[in-house]
């Protein structure tokens, strides 16, 4: 699986690292390893992405199809916002589903919002070219953009893991796996 | 020349005897030229008396003393019984009283029952002088003025009551004076006071003047006079958000237009009763309309926001473009506050070079407004000497329309940018040559994430007119852009293959 190109000099921070803070949620909805990464901009807008440990981003996985139709009555593609205050946006809770990813091996994964707020937009490019999701999960392959309420902008990260905490979780998992194998 | 004629006699008699002042009497007799109103009060009263005391069976009123400038409570208390007698009679027919002293007190109306003193002491020279003193003390520089006055709403109610009374009386004589022939209180007041202001302050009265002197009257004693209207026309008195009282002049006028005569007369005495005191002066204020200063600014700092950067009460970065320019203007124009606007803006960490960005500053309520071009030049120099983060040029006084023109620039002009580009991948000169050939590139820009929290989500089509490159080394080159206004200049991507 292609990862994002490494920087020419390791000291040059990426666009993501310059403007966003990474927050993580592990084992979303109790499903093992379905980790999400929330990129929080300094203006409180959150970009929902898959963390690198997510099954969909692992070697050998092929995405067959992605759908934003999360229920009979609700498609994230129908989301329309207007004005400065983004009226009309679909409101999301932490567990609200954003999209469903269907893989060629028959596995099905649901991506959740992880933060409360108004849905700004979902990434339509991954519908046409699902491989972008795997190639550039933190930039062009993002899932959705969410605008949390102003009052909640600080509290939304309370239930999330920092980069460091997430890395510890991943290490623990690997140790557990090696222990059992 | 005495303005009243024979046919006005009954109305004038009726009004005078029920406590109405001479000037209001003139108004209700349709006297629509200025001169009579400007005569001194005593003279008006004397002339009126003379005019009225011709027939035998009319009550002969003694020539009363002119009302004292400050109504003393005792005198009023003495006269109250008599006055009450009058108002109870409704129609105000005075019974002949043998004891002339009470009659003279009755007829010597202290406070006019219609204008509550507005056309008595409040239009005379002494009061105007008092207002002018305040105007002069306020420290404003002005070459003309517009005078605005505000009366308590209950005056409209009294005016209406007096009108109904007069209409009834004229009906008896089949006179044809219509409501529109009655001179408005405010109009008569301005006829008298405007020349006095002009003379005292030495400037002309001009409706278009930016300098406004405003006087607000109130009459606390009769504040509840309007309240009965709410019961009869409740939909005229809906509480609006920012208003203290629901009984505004507009609302009261609306209700008075709606209410039926019988209903009005049941609730409010016609003629109106005589109050104990004259109006109070709630406020005398002066204000000058905003003036506008425009120019262009250059920004040489990469650490300066355009407007103060304050989050949760804490200032994040010292100063701002607008403060560095406006603080000096605020001081020199002695203004209350300012509004800074510019034709577009740049980020904190971006410099503004070249001729500079057009800006305009609205100075609110300036006390000083006249400056020679030399003084403006000196002001510009002062601003430029005080900071090396910004520089100002072409500083000048402009009209309000100038802001509109400047904002057009924000939408319609072309903007030029330059940036130093770093590339991850190593590049050669030939790799970026192609950029120079791109002309009028159309791009569709979605609102960038970094401003999405405060801008609507939208797609905007913009044009990049031209680009020019200047190779520096394998990882750097200068890029010059000319774009359409409203473009996010570095929010687009071109693959360099």
TrEMBL record, chain A:
One of its GO terms (cellular component) is growth cone. InterPro entries: Abitram (IPR039169), GCV_H/Fam206 (IPR033753), Single_hybrid_motif (IPR011053). Gene3D superfamilies: 2.40.50.100. GO terms for molecular function: actin filament binding; actin monomer binding. It is found in: Cell projection, Dendrite; Cell projection, Growth cone; Cell projection, Lamellipodium; Nucleus speckle. Pfam families: GCV_H. GO terms for biological process: dendrite morphogenesis; regulation of actin filament polymerization; regulation of filopodium assembly. Keywords: Cell projection, Nucleus. It comes from the Eukaryota. Belongs to the ABITRAM family. Interacts with F-actin. Interacts with G-actin. This is Protein Abitram. It comes from Leptonychotes weddellii. The lineage of its organism: Eukaryota, Metazoa, Chordata, Craniata, Vertebrata.
UniProtKB/TrEMBL annotation, chain B:
Keywords: Isomerase, tRNA processing. One of its GO terms (molecular function) is RNA binding. InterPro entries: PsdUridine_synth_cat_dom_sf, Pus10-like, Pus10-like_C, Pus10_N_euk. Its EC number is 5.4.99.25. Residues 112-286 form the Pus10 N-terminal eukaryotes domain. One of its GO terms (biological process) is tRNA pseudouridine synthesis. Gene3D superfamilies: 1.10.10.2050, 3.30.70.2510, 3.30.70.3190. It is an enzyme of class 5 (isomerase). Residues 292-488 form the Pus10-like C-terminal domain. Protein with different functions depending on its subcellular location: involved in miRNA processing in the nucleus and acts as a tRNA pseudouridylate synthase in the cytoplasm. In the cytoplasm, acts as a pseudouridylate synthase by catalyzing synthesis of pseudouridine(54) and pseudouridine(55) from uracil-54 and uracil-55, respectively, in the psi GC loop of a subset of tRNAs. tRNA pseudouridylate synthase activity is enhanced by the presence of 1-methyladenosine at position 53-61 of tRNAs. Does not show tRNA pseudouridylate synthase activity in the nucleus. Interacts with components of the microprocessor complex DROSHA and DGCR8. Belongs to the pseudouridine synthase Pus10 family. This is tRNA pseudouridine(55) synthase. It comes from Leptonychotes weddellii (Weddell seal). The lineage of its organism: Eukaryota, Metazoa, Chordata, Craniata, Vertebrata.
């Amino acid at each position: 699986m292609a990862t994002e190109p490494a920087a020419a000099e390791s000291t040059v921070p990426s666009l993501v690292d310059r403007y966003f803070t990474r927050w993580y949620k592990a084992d979303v909805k109790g499903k093992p390893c379905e980790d999400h990464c929330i990129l929080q901009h300094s203006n409180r807008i959150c970009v929902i992405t898959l963390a690198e440990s997510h099954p969909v981003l692992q070697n050998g996985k092929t995405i067959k199809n992605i759908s934003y139709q999360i229920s009979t009555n609700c498609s994230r593609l129908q989301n329309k916002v207007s004005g400065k205050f983004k009226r009309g946006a679909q409101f999301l809770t932490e567990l609200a589903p954003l999209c469903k990813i269907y893989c060629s091996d028959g596995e099905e994964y649901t991506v959740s919002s992880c933060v409360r707020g108004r849905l700004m937009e979902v990434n339509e490019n991954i519908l046409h070219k699902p491989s972008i999701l795997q190639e550039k999960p933190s930039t062009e392959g993002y899932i959705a953009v969410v605008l949390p309420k102003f009052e909640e902008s600080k509290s939304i990260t309370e239930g999330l893991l920092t980069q460091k905490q997430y890395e510890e979780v991943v290490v623990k998992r690997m140790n557990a796996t090696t222990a059992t194998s | 020349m005495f303005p009243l004629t024979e046919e006005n006699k009954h109305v004038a008699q009726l009004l005078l005897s029920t406590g109405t002042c001479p000037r209001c009497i003139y108004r209700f007799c349709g006297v629509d030229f200025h001169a009579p109103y400007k005569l001194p009060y005593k003279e008006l009263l004397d002339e009126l008396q003379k005019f009225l005391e011709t027939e035998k069976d009319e009550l002969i009123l003694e020539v009363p003393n002119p009302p004292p400038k400050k109504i003393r409570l005792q005198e009023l208390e003495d006269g109250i019984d008599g006055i009450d007698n009058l108002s109870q009679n409704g129609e105000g027919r005075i019974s002949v009283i043998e004891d002339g002293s009470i009659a003279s007190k009755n007829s010597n109306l202290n406070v006019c029952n219609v204008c509550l003193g507005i056309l008595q002491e409040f239009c005379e020279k002494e009061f105007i002088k008092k207002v002018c003193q305040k105007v002069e003390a306020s420290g404003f520089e002005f070459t003309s003025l517009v005078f605005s006055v505000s009366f308590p709403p209950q005056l409209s109610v009294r005016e209406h009551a007096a009108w109904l009374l007069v209409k009834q009386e004229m009906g008896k004589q089949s006179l044809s004076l219509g409501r529109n022939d009655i001179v408005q209180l405010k109009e008569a007041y301005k006829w008298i006071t405007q020349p006095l202001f002009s003379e005292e302050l030495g400037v002309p009265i001009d409706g278009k003047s930016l300098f406004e002197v405003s006087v607000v009257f109130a009459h606390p004693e009769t504040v509840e006079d309007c309240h009965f209207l709410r019961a009869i026309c409740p939909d005229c008195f809906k509480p609006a958000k920012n208003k203290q009282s629901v009984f505004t002049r507009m609302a009261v006028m609306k209700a008075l237009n709606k209410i039926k005569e019988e209903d009005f007369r049941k609730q409010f005495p016609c003629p109106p009763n005589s109050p104990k005191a004259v109006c109070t002066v709630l406020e005398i204020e002066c204000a000058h309309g905003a003036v506008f200063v425009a120019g262009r600014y250059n920004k040489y700092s990469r650490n300066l926001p355009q407007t103060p950067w304050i989050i949760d009460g804490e200032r994040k970065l010292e100063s701002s473009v607008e403060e560095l320019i406006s603080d000096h203007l605020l001081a020199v124009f002695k203004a209350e506050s300012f509004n800074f606007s510019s034709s577009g803006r740049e980020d904190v960490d971006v410099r503004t070079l070249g001729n500079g960005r057009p800006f305009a500053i609205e100075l609110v309520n300036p006390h000083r407004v006249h400056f020679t071009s030399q003084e403006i030049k000196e002001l510009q120099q002062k601003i430029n000497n005080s900071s090396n983060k910004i520089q100002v040029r072409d500083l000048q006084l402009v009209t309000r329309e100038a802001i509109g023109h400047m904002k057009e620039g924000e939408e319609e002009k072309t903007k030029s940018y330059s940036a130093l580009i770093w590339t991850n991948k190593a590049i050669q000169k030939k790799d970026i040559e192609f950029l120079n050939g791109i002309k009028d590139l159309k791009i569709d820009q979605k609102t960038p994430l970094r401003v999405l929290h405060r801008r609507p989500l939208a797609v905007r089509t913009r044009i990049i007119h031209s680009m020019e490159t200047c190779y520096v080394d394998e990882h750097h080159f200068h890029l010059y852009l000319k774009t359409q206004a409203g473009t996010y200049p570095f929010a687009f991507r071109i693959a360099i293959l």
